[in-house]
Automatic annotation (TrEMBL):
InterPro entries: Peripla_BP_I, SBP_2_dom. Residues 55-300 form the Periplasmic binding protein domain. PROSITE patterns: PROKAR_LIPOPROTEIN (PS51257). Belongs to the bacterial solute-binding protein 2 family. It is found in: Cell envelope. Residues 1-25 form the signal peptide. GO terms for molecular function: carbohydrate binding. GO terms for cellular component: cell envelope. Keywords: Signal. It comes from the Bacteria. Its main location: other. CDD domains: PBP1_ABC_sugar_binding-like. This is Sugar ABC transporter substrate-binding protein.
Length: 334
């Protein structure tokens, strides 16, 4: 299942923060976020040639992940001659709609990247932008906004959580085959329930594991938590399943917590499979050192680049239908 970036914020927060840090380091000296108004922007091919003025509208800037994305977008856009204005809707769809309408009605932007609190609540602003030739990257799929299909000047983008969970399961099966003769007793720290993204990640993981390592079984399954909670959860699970030889986390904190529990229990890296998702610096270092088998992460740096390129493509002809993009995946291995 493909879902909006909003529904996937928890497992993706670390990746976004990492992207921001890497991008800002690479683009030091580029403009900071421009929060002032600028009239006369307008949409169309001339704006694309001269550099776009982009309005970035996440559902909140209070989440560190989204603030990091705003900073990274500002840095990268500035490095290529574009500029960025941002607005914080503070989780209020009505506020987000008003902010978007102001940009559109006052011709303050050529392009918009929106991560909505409620897609249908801001759909009228997207229609107004289309009428003015202002192009859009919108998180989700057309139906999230009440549209029947592709739209002129709008490209939609989603986090493919099914692919994310499936790749995690595929890598677990690969490690079990390589190191454990195809027989794994798995402790799985699931993406916490309550969002479509979690269900998609967890189901895809189980399916890929069963397909790739059919003689393996999940011996304990608990929600992922912070690092200490995850370490305690896995330590407790090992008491009930001392033969467990595989630990899979669905974000960096649960993965590193589970790794600590396996290490504390004296389980050697060469006789176990410990892997996870998220891709922060510490987890990647653990992969390189051999403590973790692999990490899966959404590649937000690549996604940022593809979204900027897409806005320029759309601006060259705002009357052409946009497309459906997915956030690329990155796999970290030794």
């Amino acid at each position: 299942m493909k879902t909006t970036a909003r529904s996937a914020i928890r497992p993706l927060a670390a990746a976004l923060a990492l992207t921001a840090a890497v991008t800002l380091a690479a683009c030091s000296g580029t403009p900071t976020t421009d929060s002032t108004s600028g009239a006369g922007a307008g949409g169309g091919s001339s704006a694309a040639a001269e550099g776009l003025k982009i309005g970035f509208s996440p559902f909140t800037l209070q989440a560190p992940a989204l603030k990091g994305l705003a900073d990274a977008l500002t840095a990268v856009a500035g490095s290529q001659g574009d500029s960025v204005v941002t607005a914080d809707a503070n989780n209020d769809p009505s506020t987000q709609l008003q902010q978007l309408q102001q940009w559109i009605q006052l011709d303050q932007v050529d392009a918009i990247w929106v991560i909505p609190a409620d897609g249908k609540a801001i759909a009228s602003a997207l229609t107004q932008a289309q009428a003015k030739g202002i192009v859009i990257i919108a998180s989700g799929v057309p139906a999230d906004y009440g549209f029947d299909g592709p739209q002129a000047g709008i490209t939609f983008t989603v986090a493919d959580n099914e692919a994310y969970g499936g790749k995690l399961g595929e890598l677990a099966a690969q490690c079990i085959t390589e190191k454990l003769d195809g027989v794994g007793n798995v402790i799985f720290l699931t993406s916490p329930q309550g969002a479509q993204s979690s269900e998609a990640i967890n189901t895809a993981f189980r399916d890929a594991l069963a397909k790739g390592a059919p003689d393996s079984k999940i011996v304990n399954e608990q929600d992922a938590g912070d690092r200490l909670t995850s370490q305690q959860t896995v330590s407790s699970a090992l008491q009930g399943a001392p033969d467990a030889n595989v630990m899979v986390g669905t974000d960096d904190e649960s993965t590193l917590g589970g790794l600590a529990a396996f290490t504390q229990a004296g389980k050697a890296a060469d006789a176990t499979c410990v892997l996870g998702a998220g891709g922060n610096d510490e987890a990647q270092a653990a992969v390189k050192s051999g403590e973790l088998y692999s990490e899966v992460a959404f590649d937000f740096q690549a996604d940022l680049g593809q979204n900027l390129a897409e806005l320029h493509k759309l601006a060259a002809d705002p009357t052409a239908d946009g497309s459906q993009l997915t956030i690329p995946l990155n796999v970290v291995t030794q």
